[in-house]
Amino acid sequence: TANDIELEQLPEGRDSRWPQAEADQLDDNESESCKKFQRSLSRWMLPEDARKLYLARAKYCPPATPIFMIFISVAELAVFIYYAAWKPQKQWVTLDEGIWRSPLTYKPDLRQEAWRFISYMFVHAGVEHILGNLVMQLVLGIPLELVHKGFDVGMVYLAGVLAGSLASSIFDPLSALVGASGGVYALIGGYFMNAVVNFRQMIPLFGVFRIAFIVIAVGTDFGFALYRRFANDDSMKVSFVAHFGGVVAGMTVGYVFFKAYSKKLLKDPCFWLCIVGYIVFVIFAVIFNIFLSPAP
């Protein structure tokens, strides 16, 4: 009848099956996109034996918020803008007076102010310096933190920063130090070691591309570091030794932190070996700076 036809054409309410089916389909599409993202991320960041555990644990998309990398990057950018905009500069592109007078910069004659061995990471010498470090640490650090814990990434980063300044104070004791390259290179070193050690477990194209990317990025940044050290006529030279210190910290401490995704870190003998080695290096550097350094 006509009444029956009218009833059939009426829109269904909230409990209808069609809208619910559409919602379920949207949820399925979102879930599938999330799974694809997680699979791609695991292929880039983890060896095969750790991927299954990661995918089993991953319940959210993204699986974690890269709080440490975002916080440290924003802090470094804020400090750079402060010195570029409010301090007297000869030119904005290459910072001069502001950073040399900064209480954050590492200076050999002020090394008794111990915080400078860490705080120098917030101060950068120019636009290409800050942009280079930010791009590298965000491109690499965010994926690392999405897979590993923020604590692990933070410890590796800070270990590289401290190792960089201590290495510079020993092997280039008369030079100042600015920039977060020690921390960036620690992330690179840890990631690189895992890429090389687990190369056979990676899809060959992924492995080759990852190693090539690291080599190109490191070569470019290291070229800028050499230029700042030897081509500048400034009386205060900026050391590039922090790059080496950061890489070594990454290839030891960073490698152990990142490879232990599916294992308990404290039960890994390699972890304790690297930690003891790092502590011995720090103690030697402190003794050197107090008693043996040629710096004033």
Summed up:
The chain is mainly α and 296 residues long.
Question: What topology does this entry show?
Answer:
Elements lengths: L1 H8 L7 H29 L2 H10 L9 H19 L11 H4 L15 H4 L7 H21 L2 H22 L9 H17 L6 H27 L10 H19 L9 H24 L4
Helix pairs in contact: 2-3, 4-7, 7-9, 8-9, 8-11, 8-12, 9-10, 9-11, 11-12
Subcellular location: Membrane
InterPro entries: Peptidase_S54_rhomboid_dom, Peptidase_S54_rhomboid_met, Rhomboid-like_sf, Rhomboid_IM_Serine_Proteases
GO biological process, one term: proteolysis
Question: Could you explain the architecture of this structure?
Answer:
The chain has 296 residues and is mostly helical. The protein is globular, with a radius of gyration of 25 Å. The protein starts with a helix and ends with a helix. Mean pLDDT is 80; it is low at 1-18 and 21-26. The chain has two domains: 31-63; 66-292, Rhomboid-like fold (Up-down Bundle). The protein has twelve helices and no strands. The chain has helices spanning 2-9, 17-45, 48-57, 67-85, 97-100, 116-119, 127-147, 150-171, 181-197, 204-230, 241-259, 269-292.
